[in-house]
């Protein structure tokens, strides 16, 4: 059984006009390859499942999309020491970028 890992009091800058910053507990569920920020308003899922495109993250890693509201999120999470980029993948009809990251919760 894989135990989820949590880091409390994390503020994430989303860099968008609709959603700039949220603070909460960053929850990494390695078993489900999920990364979620648990806030007072509810969960904000940061990771994305790319199985439909044939991509599976390595054990302990997750994918983060880098398009639409997720544009630049990986770079901001990495700058905060919360993740480390492992690889870049291109998905979908618009050739959108996502990154596989190792969650460090630094």
What does this structure look like?
By secondary structure, this protein is mainly beta. It has one domain (5-103). The chain is built from one helix and seven strands. It has one helix spanning 73-79; strands at 5-13, 21-29, 34-39, 42-45, 61-65, 83-91, 96-103. Strands 1-2-3-4 form a four-stranded antiparallel β-sheet, with helices on one face. The protein has a three-stranded antiparallel β-sheet with strand order 5-7-6, with helices on one face. The longest helix is centred in the last third of the chain and has 7 residues, at 73-79. The protein is globular and about 35 Å long. The model has no long low-confidence stretch (mean pLDDT 89).
Individual helix count? 1
Instruction: Write down the Rg.
Output: 13 Å
Find the structural class using helix and strand composition. Answer: mainly beta
Shape: globular
Return the string of H and E elements. Answer: EEEEEHEE
Q: Round the mean pLDDT to the nearest integer and report it.
A: 89
Count all strands and give the number.
Answer: 7
Question: What is the terminal separation in angstroms?
Answer: 23 Å
Question: Keywords, please?
Answer:
106 residues; mainly beta; 4-stranded antiparallel β-sheet; 1 helix; 7 strands; 47% strand; globular
Indicate the topology.
Elements: E1 5-13, E2 21-29, E3 34-39, E4 42-45, E5 61-65, H1 73-79, E6 83-91, E7 96-103
Antiparallel strand pairs: 1-2, 2-3, 3-4, 5-7, 6-7
